[in-house]
Design a protein that fits this description.
disordered N terminus, 18% helix
Length: 842
């Protein structure tokens, strides 16, 4: 067994025995692969490192007379030496051949140039320091990497040779990535700035075991720096987390630091300067990071200079890792500030979608990929944090589209991706700020994971989300069955974006394990899991209200919907439900048999409901319930996470005034100070009151004035007033184009209401953009306002009540012998309620 001492002695003997010229020629020759590559290296060596022709021969493998010819052909001489850039520190890959050290060369046999960069002094064109990043990496496996060969690594012990590599210059920065045979990958990026080099190093563990003790050795070699090359540590300072070295007169300095720091030190025999960091332990599949600093300083107050460097915040500066061949950013069109967004990337040649990833180490990119069976109802996008994005794409033509919520106009562009890195910037123009108007958006039907929400909510500019953490689908299950215990408190992403995690969906598809659909209802904003099964449902409603929860009707046409509205006294109605998508309408046949044949405007075609028909079915069912006295407040839910729809595509805006909080938002949602939308942004008042307001006396002149604005990305098709469920005014709006490229529609109309109890609401429809699926419906709808006159109750239409009675009778027959007597009794109870209402119907 060889000892480390024996290995060291053998290395020393090899150095003594071999002439320096032969040693370099054998081990460090890098033959240029092309004229352009040869020219680049000759410029590097001749102009900047000032190599002799003999030294160039050692690097290139060419004879001296060949090099003389090539230098003349490329016109490389002292007379053609260019001026160095002044806007950033000047760095170049170290060419090799000439050993970067003086003294103790046996400590660095066969130095590899692929880890070495020369940083040229701003005060002396002939002086440079060689940064070896990294010189070595240790781990629990042993010496995992070494940039020279004086001692064995885990690879030399296995007689494994690592391939030679070169630095890559990408967008003016220097990058090096090496993959080791066991799956460990490490890389370095050096970014030259005006007065410093910003450095970062990463290590990715693609082994099956956790990596620990990940110490790194980074070396600044001083041989090439005039007045810094004395073999001593007397001119070095190791303090305040930095390693620094000064010139002979102590008037000039070089300063380096890495974070998190493991050890600062210097080797007087070389001489060199070390700031050696240590990676955090790295589990399989994870990546760990280091940040680095290097700068020059002219002056004598180095303590103040270290304070200045620390104040730059380089240790916490956002890390970006760019490797893709398509790199982009999404910014605010006015300020240029980076924005989060939803991004679509479409390959126009192969007709496929691609998913971006973030360039920021601390950034996030969440891929969303849902398709309804084999239909064209497809939603494939990435939600991105407010950082750059990147993709690795085959050559071709790609269309990119960025969107952010409802208050920005989307931006789209097409790019050609080829051999070089392609850069793209998408600019989103804000055309409204609803928060400034007191409106805050929400999605009350969410199936996204808690880990997705911080990313997706910001990328959709959704202020509130109510994820359904508990989901019951069989009559024997309780919400506690999934074992989740969640704290009853809002989770704040930032002051304007929050989600509340304790919400339950009862979506009953099976009774005692046998397929027998009932439907869905949500319990929102409760405090602890409900220890109840369904059906029956009355006890759930009582338990929910005891915890301050709200009940939300999922969809109007479920089997049990006509029963649960009166029995549970449901609070909220999803006027925009989870069958409203950005993409193609996907459920034309769903509950088609329940459509009321006598109700006008519920459009169908040869397939089933059209999207307009489905939407109108929901509207009219809601109006019918409201006429029956069930004053559910409007809301919106997407079921994003299950269906092919972005989070918050349909959303409810709630007016919170100047004080936004989750508690304020949920309270005002329950009050009905709200509107739902797929696009248009409504800020309207009814006699200067918000939607949801109730008057207990007829207004003056027996009319209600509706005033305000509707802002939209596209022209509105029409604006309609709904009065007791009927359209009483329908006007083609005069949409005005704004400087932002959006449209604004002024609302100012008077609606006669008489002197009896009634309700009214405003709805509008936006023209679909040209690229939208055929028949796409884009609407907004306010919560109703009501006028309640004592002794003059609102009377529903007979056809409305009879429809609900027909639905209940069908369910009583269908459920007989399947549901328990208690559950069947709830259907009978609801039937009796509607029969009493029918007596008063008109």
């Amino acid at each position: 067994m060889k000892t480390k001492t024996n290995v060291w002695l053998q290395c020393v003997m090899a150095i003594v025995t071999l002439p320096a010229f032969l040693h370099a020629q054998v081990d460090q020759t890098r033959t240029a692969g092309s004229d352009s590559e040869l020219r680049s290296w000759l410029e590097n060596m001749s102009w900047h490192h000032r190599y002799s022709v003999s030294e160039m021969a050692q690097v290139t493998g060419l004879r001296e007379e060949q090099l003389t010819e090539q230098l003349a052909r490329f016109e490389i001489s002292d007379n053609t030496r260019p001026t160095r850039p002044t806007d950033r520190l000047f760095i170049l890959p170290y060419p090799g051949g000439r050993h970067p050290r003086i003294g103790f060369l046996e400590g660095a046999v066969d130095p590899q140039r692929e880890t070495k960069l020369s940083a040229f002094a701003p005060w002396d064109e002939t002086s440079y320091a060689v940064l070896d990043v990294p010189e070595a990496i240790w781990s629990n496996l042993g010496l995992t990497y070494l940039a020279h060969t004086h001692i064995d690594t885990v690879w030399t012990k296995q007689q494994v040779s690592l391939p030679k590599q070169e630095w890559k210059i990408v967008d003016g920065n220097y990058e090096m990535v090496r993959s080791l045979p066991n799956g460990i990958e490490f890389g370095v990026k050096v970014i030259p700035l005006a007065d410093n080099l910003r450095m970062k190093m990463w290590l990715t563990n693609r082994t099956n075991e956790r990596l620990t003790d990940l110490r790194v050795q980074n070396c600044v070699m001083l041989k090439g720096m005039r007045d810094f090359d004395q073999q001593s540590n007397d001119n070095k300072r190791f303090s305040d987390g930095y390693a620094a070295v000064h010139s002979t007169d102590a008037a000039r300095w070089m300063i380096t630091g890495w974070d998190p720091l493991h050890r600062n030190w210097g080797n007087e025999r070389c001489p060199c300067l070390h700031s050696d960091p240590k990676f955090a332990d790295c589990p399989p599949g994870e990546t760990v990071w280091l940040r680095g600093w290097f700068s020059f300083y002219e002056g004598t107050d180095v303590a103040s200079e270290l304070e200045r460097i620390e104040a730059t915040g380089w240790r916490t500066h956002p890390l970006h890792h760019v490797t893709g061949n398509l790199v982009g950013k999404v910014v605010d069109a006015d300020s240029g500030v980076a924005l989060p967004c939803r991004l679509y990337v479409w390959d126009e040649d192969n007709r496929t979608y691609h998913f971006a990833r973030s360039t920021a180490v601390a950034g996030s990119a969440v891929s969303y990929d849902r398709q309804l069976g084999k239909t064209t109802s497809i939603e494939r996008h990435t939600t991105l944090s407010a950082d750059g994005f990147q993709l690795d794409l085959p050559p071709g033509r790609y269309r990119l589209r960025a969107q952010l919520g409802k208050e920005y106009l989307p931006d789209e562009t097409t790019v050609e991706v080829g051999g070089e890195r392609t850069h793209v910037t998408l600019q989103l123009k804000r055309f409204d700020n609803m928060n400034q108007r007191g409106w805050y958006s929400g999605d009350t039907h969410v199936h996204r994971s808690a880990s997705d929400l911080p990313n997706a909510m910001l990328a959709e500019d959704l202020n509130v989300a109510l994820p359904l953490s508990y989901w019951v689908r069989d009559s024997r299950e309780t919400p506690t069955g999934n074992g989740q215990l969640i704290a009853p408190m809002p989770i704040e992403i930032d002051p304007l974006h929050v989600y509340y995690p304790i919400n339950t969906e009862y979506e009953i598809f099976t009774i005692d394990g046998q397929r027998h659909t009932q439907g869905a209802v949500f319990v929102l904003n409760h405090q602890r899991p409900l220890e109840l099964t369904a059906p029956p449902v009355r006890a759930i409603a009582s338990a929910a209200r005891a915890q301050g929860a709200l009940l939300d009707l999922d969809k109007h046409s479920w089997n049990w919907s006509a029963m649960i509205v009166p029995v549970m006294q449901v609070d909220l109605f999803e006027l925009s439900n989870n069958h409203h998508w950005r993409t193609q309408f996907g459920f034309p046949k769903w509950t088609l048999e329940t459509g009321p044949p006598s109700w006008p405007g519920i459009e169908t075609d040869q397939v089933g409901f059209t999207e307009r028909g489905w939407t109108e079915f929901g509207f009219q069912t809601y109006y019918a319930w409201f006429n029956c006295g069930f004053r559910m407040r409007v809301t919106a839910g997407t079921a994003s996470g299950v269906h092919p729809v972005p989070l918050g595509h349909g959303r409810v805006y709630v007016h919170c005034g100047e004080q936004f909080s989750y508690a304020n938002w949920i309270e005002n949602l329950n009050r009905g100070h709200s509107f739902v939308t797929h696009g248009p942004l409504m800020d309207v008042r009814f006699n200067n009151e918000l939607p949801g307001h109730t008057w207990h006396a007829a207004p003056a002149e027996n009319s209600v004035n509706i005033t305000g604005e509707i802002r939209s990305a596209n022209i509105l098709d029409r604006v309609e007033v709904v009065f007791n469920g009927e359209i009483v005014q329908s006007i083609p709006p005069q949409s005005q184009l704004t400087s932002a490229g959006s449209y604004v529609t002024t609302v100012d109309m008077s609606v006669p209401v008489g002197s009896s109890s009634c309700w009214l609401a405003l709805r509008c429809f936006e023209q679909a953009p040209p690229d939208a699926p055929a028949g796409k419906v884009i609407f907004a709808h306010t919560n109703p306002v009501t006028i309640d006159i004592e002794g003059q109750p609102l009377k529903p239409h007979r056809r409305e009540v009879e429809y609900f009675l027909d639905r209940l009778q069908a369910e009583l027959v269908r459920n007989k012998g399947v549901l328990s007597p208690e559950a069947l009794a709830e259907y009978a109870e609801a039937q009796a309620i509607y029969e009493r209402i029918l007596i008063t119907a008109q």
